[in-house]
TrEMBL record:
The chain crosses the membrane at residues 118-138, 150-168, 189-208, 228-252, 259-282, 288-307, 319-340, 346-369, 411-430, 465-485, 552-572. Coiled coil: none annotated. It is found in: Membrane. One of its GO terms (molecular function) is phosphate transmembrane transporter activity. This is Phosphate transporter. Sodium-phosphate symporter. GO terms for cellular component: membrane. Belongs to the inorganic phosphate transporter (PiT) (TC 2.A.20) family. It comes from Rhynchospora pubera. GO terms for biological process: phosphate ion transmembrane transport.
C-alpha cells in the first residue's frame, strides 16, 4: 500500500505508482501548472481538482485524485514563487461561466460540496438543538418563577448567538491558512476544528470570569444596579454578535475581543458615565490594531525567508525540509509547554519538562515524516537538483531563490503540510479554550444576576455553560465558517504549505511571546498580518490591496459599531424589562 500524504496523492493505475513522480516522466513536464486558481465566488472556491495537462501524453495510465485530499494542481506553480493573479482570476471566471447552467445551491452546500437538502438538514438540526437544549440546562431550571425562566432562556440564547458568531469568524485564525494552502480540505478543517474547538472550550475554558469583562469597566459604578447591569451584559452579547455576523457575511476577519470590548465601552460610557471606563485599558486594546499586524508580518516575513534560504537553496531541498521539521517542532512545543502550559511552578523543573515535551514532539514528527515520505526521500537522495547549480555562498537572505520541482516539491510541501496541520490543530484547541470566554463570561454573569447569586466580582461558570459555548462555536463554524476561511486562505495572497506554515508559526509565536510580555495583541490581527508578511516576502504585488483595505476598515469600526449597537440594545432592553418585571 502506497504511503498516505495528506496533501496530494494519486491512485495507482496500470502498475504506475501514485504520486507526483509518476507524472514527471519527462523533463519537459517538470513544471506543473495549476488547473484552477482562486475563485471570486463560493461557487468555484472549492472545485473538484483537475489534473494538469502535461506536454507529453501519458498513454500507459489514467490518474485520478483520491478525495478528499487536494492535489498539487491546486497549489501555485512548482517553483512556489511566480504567480499571475490576473490570469488566475480569468481562469476562474471561465470555469464559473461554464458551470452557470448547473443547479444553484446555497453557499453552505456549495462550499462543502453537498446537496442543498443536506445543508438544510444540518442547519435545521443545529437550530433545533439550540432551541431545545437550554430547556434541560440546570442554569435555567434553577430560576424562580416563569418570568425568570424566560429571561434565563433568552440569556442562554444570547450567549449561544455570540458563540455562534465566534465560530463563524474567529476559527478562521486556526484553519484558514491550512485550507488556503491545500493542506486540509474544507470538510477536514471543519471537522477537525469542531472537535478541537469544543474540546478546548470544555476542557480549558476558564471556570471563573469577571463581571466587568476585560478590565474595561469600573465595577463600583454599577453596584446596586443589577437590572441595568443585566441589560448591559445581554446587550453587549447581542451587539458583539450582530457586528460579528455582519463581518462574517462579508468575510472580514475581525477580533471577537474587540467586539465585546466595544460593546462594553458603549454601555459603560452611556449608562455609567466617563468614569465607568478604564481608558488606559481601551488605549491598549486599540494599539493592538497597529502592533499585532506589524509583529505578525515581520515574523512571518523572516520565517518564510528562512525557509527559502536554508531549505530551497539546499542541494537536496526535500531532505533539508525533513531535517528542519523536527527542529521547528522542538522549538515550538518547548516554547508552548514552558510559556503557556508550565507543568511546575519551579523554573528549572518546568524548563526540563518543556524540553522533554519538545523532544518527544520532535521524535514523533521525525518518525511520521520518515514513514510517510521515506520512499521519496530515499529515491531522491542522490539525484541532482536545480539547487545544485546555485552557489550557496553567493545567495543572500533576501535573494530570489528558485523553488524545488517534481518529487522534491512533493517532499517539501508534504513536510511543511504536516507541520501546518499540527500548528492549526493546536491553535484551534487553544482558541476554543481562550475565546469562548467572550461569550460565556457575560452569559454566566447575567445568569448569576437573575439567580441573585452575584457576590463580589467573580462568577463561577458551570460546566454545562462551558459546553454550551463550545457547541455554539462549532455550530457557527459549520454554518458560516467557510466565509472568513476564504478570506484568510485565499483572498489576501496565494498560499502553499510553506507559506501557510510560515504564517501560522509566526502568528502563534508572536501571540505567545506578546502574551507573556503583557503586550496588547490580537490573534486575528496578528494572523492577518502574518499572511500579509508572507505575501510581501514574495513581492508587494502578491498581496491583494483591495482585500487588505476592507479588512483594515472593518478593524477600525469594530469598537465604535459595537458601542453604538450596545447602547441601542440596552435602551430597548431596559424598556422591555421595566414592563415585564
Amino acid at each position: 500500500m502506497a504511503p498516505f500524504s495528506p496533501y496530494f496523492s494519486m491512485t495507482r493505475c496500470n502498475g504506475v505508482r501514485g504520486g507526483v513522480s509518476s507524472l514527471l516522466l519527462h523533463d519537459t513536464a517538470a513544471r506543473v501548472k495549476p488547473a484552477i486558481r482562486y475563485a471570486p465566488s463560493l461557487k468555484t472556491w472549492f472545485p473538484k481538482q483537475k489534473l494538469p495537462e502535461l506536454s507529453h501524453r501519458i498513454d500507459t495510465c489514467t490518474c485520478r485524485l483520491r478525495t478528499p485530499c487536494a492535489s498539487l494542481s491546486s497549489y501555485v506553480s512548482a517553483d512556489d514563487e511566480s504567480t499571475n493573479i490576473g490570469a488566475s482570476n480569468d481562469a476562474v471566471e471561465t470555469e464559473s461561466s461554464a458551470s452557470g447552467s448547473e443547479l444553484e445551491l446555497s453557499d453552505m452546500a456549495d462550499a462543502f460540496h453537498i446537496s442543498s437538502r443536506t445543508a438544510f438538514a444540518i442547519t435545521a438540526t443545529i437550530v433545533f438543538a439550540a432551541l431545545t437544549f437550554p430547556l434541560v440546562m440546570r442554569s435555567i431550571n434553577q430560576a424562580v418563577g416563569t418570568k425568570m425562566k424566560v429571561l434565563s432562556y433568552l440569556t442562554v440564547l444570547s450567549g449561544f448567538y455570540m458563540a455562534w458568531n465566534i465560530g463563524a469568524n474567529d476559527v478562521a485564525n486556526a484553519m484558514g491558512t491550512s485550507v488556503g494552502s491545500g493542506a486540509l480540505t474544507l470538510r477536514q478543517a471543519v471537522l477537525t476544528a469542531a472537535v478541537l474547538e469544543f474540546s478546548g472550550a470544555f476542557l480549558m475554558g476558564t471556570h471563573v470570569t469577571n463581571t466587568m469583562q476585560k478590565g474595561i469597566l469600573v465595577a463600583s459604578v454599577f453596584q446596586g444596579k443589577d437590572s441595568l447591569l443585566f441589560a448591559g451584559l445581554l446587550s453587549s452579547l447581542a451587539a458583539a454578535g450582530t457586528w460579528l455576523q455582519v463581518a462574517s457575511f462579508f468575510g472580514w476577519p475581525v477580533s471577537t475581543t474587540h467586539c465585546i470590548v466595544g460593546a462594553m465601552v458603549g454601555f459603560g460610557l452611556v449608562y455609567g458615565g466617563v468614569g465607568a471606563v478604564f481608558w488606559s485599558s481601551l488605549a491598549r486594546v486599540s494599539s493592538s490594531w497597529v502592533i499585532s499586524p506589524l509583529m505578525g508580518a515581520a515574523a512571518s516575513f523572516l520565517v518564510y525567508k528562512c525557509i527559502r534560504r536554508f531549505v530551497y537553496s539546499a542541494p537536496n531541498p526535500g531532505q533539508a525540509a525533513a531535517a528542519a521539521a523536527p527542529i521547528a517542532v522542538f522549538l515550538g512545543v518547548t516554547g508552548i509547554s514552558f510559556a503557556a502550559f508550565p507543568l511546575s511552578k519551579i523554573f528549572l523543573i518546568a524548563l526540563l519538562q518543556a524540553l522533554a515535551c519538545g523532544t518527544i514532539g520532535a521524535l514523533i514528527v521525525s518518525y511520521v515524516i520518515t514513514k510517510q515520505l521515506g520512499h521519496l526521500l530515499s529515491s531522491e537522495a542522490d539525484k541532482p537538483t536545480a539547487a545544485d547549480n546555485q552557489s550557496a555562498q553567493n545567495i543572500g537572505f533576501l535573494s530570489d531563490i528558485a523553488g524545488p520541482r517534481g518529487a522534491q516539491l512533493e517532499i517539501v510541501y508534504g513536510v511543511f503540510g504536516y507541520m501546518q496541520v499540527l500548528s492549526a490543530c493546536f491553535m484551534s484547541f487553544a482558541h476554543g479554550g481562550n475565546d469562548v470566554s467572550n461569550a460565556i463570561g457575560p452569559l454566566a454573569a447575567a445568569l448569576a444576576i437573575l439567580q441573585g447569586g452575584v457576590s463580589g466580582a467573580e462568577i463561577v461558570i458551570p460546566l454545562e455553560v462551558l459546553a454550551w459555548g463550545g457547541f455554539g462555536i462549532v455550530a457557527g463554524l459549520t454554518m458560516w465558517g467557510y466565509r472568513v476561511i476564504a478570506t484568510i486562505g485565499k483572498k489576501i495572497t496565494e498560499l502553499t504549505p510553506t507559506r501557510g506554515f510560515a504564517a501560522e508559526f509566526a502568528a502563534a509565536s508572536v501571540v505567545l511571546v506578546a502574551s507573556k510580555l503583557g503586550l496588547p495583541i490580537s490573534a486575528t490581527h496578528t494572523l492577518v498580518g502574518a499572511v500579509m508578511g508572507v505575501g510581501f516576502a514574495r513581492g508587494l504585488n502578491s498581496v491583494r490591496a483591495e482585500t487588505v483595505r476592507e479588512i483594515v476598515a472593518s478593524w477600525l469600526v469594530t469598537i465604535p459599531v459595537g458601542a453604538i449597537l450596545s447602547v441601542f440594545y440596552t435602551w430597548i432592553l431596559t424598556k422591555l424589562l421595566s414592563i415585564v418585571l
